[in-house]
Amino acid sequence: MNDELHARAVDTFIEAANASDPERRAALLGRALTDDIVFWGPLGRGVGREAVEDFISEVVQRHPSGACRMVRTTRVDAPDEWARYGWRYESATGEALLSGMDTIHVTPEGGIDEIVVFAGPLT
């Protein structure tokens, strides 16, 4: 495994989170995630690509501030099959609304099969 493979999967996932068209989002998630992905998000645990798609549609895409986007803020650090990266959720004007770090597990084929979301600063 290498950082480039992980970064490609992460960037495709973030592109999917920012896609407003549901068909494009589904296609991008199909490239980035395995069918049986385990997603540990701020609202709990979900299994399957549909759970991730539902989270994006219902939480990320419907923010009260209007059009928002996810941005990767760090390089993807991938010591082996696990990786981590920083992110920011920002308004259309670039105002940071939330930031955090995700830890992911990537299969040898390059699909993310587990995401653990850590949102907000550690205090």
From TrEMBL:
Transmembrane segments: none annotated. Residues 10-112 form the SnoaL-like domain. InterPro entries: NTF2-like_dom_sf, SnoaL-like. It holds the Pfam family SnoaL_2. SUPFAM superfamilies: NTF2-like. This is SnoaL-like domain-containing protein.
